[in-house]
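Design a sequence for this backbone.
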């Protein structure tokens, strides 16, 4: 009798885990996977990072519009999109293309790659994606915020601190639900944690 109860308990545990994992995958989907996988590889960034940023920015809603005017999956402001399309990729796309899912994912992957190459650190790259390169460059030159090794020991914008927390949590969740890709996503946990507490 005890053996049957133990077996039933184990099976029930597996069933609950399976159902809970299914609900989590609904909350953390891999929508637009053709675009995400293609451009993550093309621009050499971890796919789970790209999924996590899309989840945080728009919740995978290609028609999303922020109260500041950012639109699309990757939430581009008009000036950022104009800079990317005219000065970085030289494609001269119309502003309305910010809503196009493939364009948004491609440009978002390109921008994340550009920021990571510039700073060499995902925490700083995500801060720049959210707060802008100008703000982050200023913080890195300020001993109050810079850690002296190219990272940030604190971040003065609460929105940016919260943004990094959300993306980091989403990356961790994608790793847990779908398996960690061969490329490490965020390995600077101590740096990220320090930067979240000004």
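Sequence:
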């Amino acid at each position: 009798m005890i053996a049957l109860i133990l077996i039933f308990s184990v099976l029930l545990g597996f069933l609950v885990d399976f159902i809970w994992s299914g609900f989590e995958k609904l909350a953390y989907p891999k929508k637009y996977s053709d675009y995400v996988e293609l451009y993550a590889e093309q621009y050499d960034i971890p796919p789970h990072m790209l999924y996590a940023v899309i989840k945080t920015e728009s919740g995978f809603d290609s028609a999303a519009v922020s109260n500041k005017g950012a639109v699309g999956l990757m939430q581009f402001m008009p000036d950022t999109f104009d800079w990317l399309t005219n000065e970085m990729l030289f494609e001269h796309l119309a502003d309305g293309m910010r809503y196009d899912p493939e364009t948004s994912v491609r440009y978002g992957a390109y921008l994340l790659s550009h920021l990571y190459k510039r700073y060499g650190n995902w925490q700083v790259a995500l801060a720049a994606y959210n707060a802008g390169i100008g703000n982050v460059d200023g913080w890195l030159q300020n001993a109050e915020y810079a850690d002296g090794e190219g990272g940030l020991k604190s971040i003065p914008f609460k929105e940016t601190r919260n943004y990094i927390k959300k993306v980091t949590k989403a990356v961790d969740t994608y790793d847990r639900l779908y398996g960690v890709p061969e490329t490490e996503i965020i390995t600077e946990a101590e740096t990220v944690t320090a930067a979240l507490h000004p």
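The radius of gyration is 19 Å.
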